[in-house]
Amino acid sequence: MNNNPQDPIIVLQNDSPDVLYSRSAHVQVAVYSKRSPAKETPNEDSAAVVPAGPEATLFVVADGVGGHKAGEVASQIAIDSLASQLHASSSIPGTGLRANILNGIESANASIQALNLGAATTIAVVELNHGQVRPYHVGDTGILMVSSRGNVCYQSISHSPVGFAVESGLLDEDEALLHEDRHFVSNVVGDPAMRIEVGPTIRLAPRDTVLLASDGLFDNLTIDLIVETIRKGPLKKSVKLLADMANSNMQLAPAELSKPDDLTILAFRRYTPRAKSANKLNHENGTAVLRNSLSDSSI
Q1: Could you give the CA distance from residue 49 to residue 283 in angstroms, rounded to a whole number?
Q2: CATH class (in words) of the domain with range 9-282
Q3: pLDDT tens across 200-216, in order?
Q4: I want to staple 286 with a disulfide (CB 3.0 to 4.6 A). Which of 16, 75, 214, 293 is the partner?
């Protein structure tokens, strides 16, 4: 493990049941990533926590598109492109974080197309900058921001026929979860027609929780259940509970609320420690590629 505090944490092709957890003077983060129980090929999801300045951090989840070649490669390219863009611009005064995120995703889009494999990935990014968050996404990797009382402060719209039908009121959530076309996605990184949706800037209250997750979560649990689980309690425990419930539903009969898939959950909250303590990352029996632990100055 590299001890440079400016290096990102990157989780690739993980297949461990453990939740990775980290906390600093400003933020606590929990990450879970495991491949689908219905396959033996690699986990095509990737996740990252990327320091972007003294009080700025990017949180990223990318989901390689199933049914396409090299989905795990596409999601890794998306993560690496963002990290590389931030690193390259770190020495350039006045470089905006928003521009770096957009350029990083555009660079990934070009690189994935250049593979000529038909590979693609979805991606969700949340920037945390001086106590404010801003979401970005392509595809159906979801973003939720909830208060400790369970109020949904922000929810991304899935770039898919079913997602747009729900947003327009043509389908309700229960119908969407059982819809035969719920696996289709209409906007991906790796497509010349890719578009990036940029959300609003929102102040993160002390007890708010921000969650990014691949569709392995949203296709197996209702939004109400996700919100009720993640809004309270220890963050690591809440993420583990979400993962356990989603994995349990993946074992159900196909006609029920069940869609076996790779599952990645990344959640973070503002954190104010009672006493100064060393930051650490716990990872037991994981196969994640962890390039660094977080430092107090990075988030």
Answers
A1: 15
A2: alpha beta
A3: 999 999 999 999 999 89
A4: 16
The encoded tokens of residue 75 equal 């999601």
Both tokens of 222, joined, read: 């209702």
Domain boundaries of the chain, sorted by first residue: 9-282
Q: What is the pLDDT of residues 79-117, one digit of tens each?
A: 999 999 988 776 554 458 999 999 999 999 999 999 999
d(CA 20, CA 7): 17
The answer to whether 111 and 119 are in contact (CB under 8 A) is no
pTM beyond 0.90, yes or no? no
Low-confidence ranges of the chain (pLDDT < 70): 1-7, 67-68, 90-95, 161-183, 253-258, 272-299
